[in-house]
Amino acid sequence: MRLKVTLRQKLDNGIRVTCVGWSKTDEVYLISEDNQIRSWSTFTTQPTKIAQLDPNLFATDLQFLPRHENSLGRHGVLILITSSDGKFHLMNRSGRIERSVDAHKGAILVGQWNNDGTGLLTAGEDGCIKIWSKSGMLRSTVINSDSSVYGACWSPDCQSIAYTHGKSIVIKQLAPNNKPLKWSRSLEMPQSGSIYKIVWSNDGTQLTGTCANGNVLSAYLVDRHSHYLNFSVTVSEKKTISVRNVLDDTVENLELPDRIIQLMIKYSNMILTTPTQCYIYSTNNWNTPFIFELKDGAVSHLEMSEKLYDSLELGRKPRICDFVGNSVSVRRADGSLINVQISPFPELIHK
């Protein structure tokens, strides 16, 4: 597996981009040195102007509220922006600031929502990492160090925080009486000058970043592999899959209309998802897949059994389907619903 990297065309007059964040699966928002907010689709070459920030607000980081049940429909609408004056701002998608909070002494270098959208963290030049409620109320100061914090992020379960300390990365457990973990490693120097910020998309298959020379970096994962019996499957490009039968060395190249996010091949079936659709192929016929629409956003995880598969869409509950795409419910013999991630015995499956 590797990243295929592209440097986008620079903005007019060589203006540098200082902040970048994913708003949708294929769209990012940029904030540049001229205080303009722009949107940029991964399919287009030119960004679109969204709003003009106050000339005294110098943004250092931005992130959209993540998709989750607790976000109450505001995912992709509420934006967290941090600035060099020690404040963070909650802004709507059109560029109107709804609230500003004085948070740090010196610039805030990192601002990030937690994964369920109920709170956020900020980290800054003053060496502090603070946790805030979604509305901007201070909950706690979890780190107070002697050096600036240039990077910080939540763990998937929101129970710990990883942050930079000098040349090391430290993992701090939020539960009391836990000793922090610390390590360091070497980094490869990029060819486009310093990279100010790198942000992964929610589905984990793309990233975007801002560079010191004014370029906006974009990349996506290729050469992802999956194997089943005599079949070897490779995601060779963003929208292309190669299926090789090792018995007779035949190769099927499958072209999709949109980029590939998730892929799994088992039990004589191959399932792959794009941002809007799910494809189910039989290993006996690669020409006529069963296709159905996804209800809300990209799939973040797939699991397959011999007759069923489980797809987890971002911000939604898991969904169990059979191999012709029909939704099914899973219940115990007494009629009560079971957790789709656990398969207790006995159980009955009803379409």
Would you mind describing this structure in some detail?
With 351 residues, the protein is mainly beta. It folds into three domains: 17-220, YVTN repeat-like/Quinoprotein amine dehydrogenase (Methylamine Dehydrogenase, Chain H, 7 Propeller); 224-306, Lipocalin; 315-350, no CATH class. Helices cover 0% and strands 54% of the residues. The chain has a four-stranded antiparallel β-sheet, with no helix packed on it. A four-stranded antiparallel β-sheet has the order 2-3-4-5, with no helix packed on it. A hairpin with a 5-residue loop joins strand 10 (108-113) and strand 11 (119-124). InterPro entries: Beta-prop_IFT80_2nd, WD40/YVTN_repeat-like_dom_sf, WD40_rpt. One of its GO terms (cellular component) is intraciliary transport particle B. Keywords: WD repeat. It holds the Pfam family Beta-prop_IFT80_2nd.
The CATH architecture of the largest domain comes to 7 Propeller
Q: How would you sum up the major sheet?
A: 4 strands, antiparallel
Quaternary state, please? single chain
Tell me, what's the shape? globular
Task: Count the domains.
Answer: 3
What is the strand arrangement across the widest sheet? 1-20-19-18
Tally of contiguous helical segments: 0
Instruction: Give me the count of strands.
Output: 33
Spans with pLDDT under 50 lasting ≥5 residues?
70-74, 327-351
- Distance N to C terminus: 38 Å
What structural category arises from helix and sheet content? mainly beta
Pfam family, one: WD40
Keywords: WD repeat
InterPro entries: Beta-prop_IFT80_2nd, WD40/YVTN_repeat-like_dom_sf, WD40_rpt
Domain IFT80 second beta-propeller: 223-308
